[in-house]
Design goal:
The longest helix is centred in the C-terminal third of the chain and has 32 residues. This protein has 3 helices and 2 strands, in the order ββααα. With 101 residues, the chain is mainly alpha-helical. β1 and β2 form a beta hairpin. The chain starts with a strand and ends in a 15-residue tail after the last helix.
């Protein structure tokens, strides 16, 4: 299997597992910057990894990334829907209904 090198010197095995890339980015970028990583720092590292991939590897990681993002999106939408269903109803601002005698 091919490897990609991060700016920290860490070698990442390009085995098609998106999770291993995400874990390496977290360990090597986020934690090494003590959680003070910027958007630019992370984008530079991701761009560096993608630049070391061949066309087939890019395609494989893109497909896996899109799948993971679609599942994450679905889960967030379902979570929001469930929260709406289970949250207490807000009282309206309109007039109170008339009491009939």
């Amino acid at each position: 299997m091919r490897k990609a090198r991060l700016s920290t010197g860490h070698e990442l095995l390009l085995d098609g597992e998106l999770l291993s890339v995400l874990e390496a980015l977290y360990r090597e970028v986020t934690l090494k910057h003590q959680l003070k990583v910027t958007f630019e720092d992370m984008m530079r590292e991701i761009t560096g990894i993608v630049g070391q991939m061949n066309e087939e590897e890019r395609k494989r990681y893109l497909v896996e990334s899109l799948f993971l993002n679609s599942v994450t999106y679905e889960n967030e939408m379902l979570d929001a829907y469930v929260r709406r269903l289970t949250s207490p109803r807000k009282k309206g601002r309109g007039r109170a209904p008339r009491k009939t005698a």
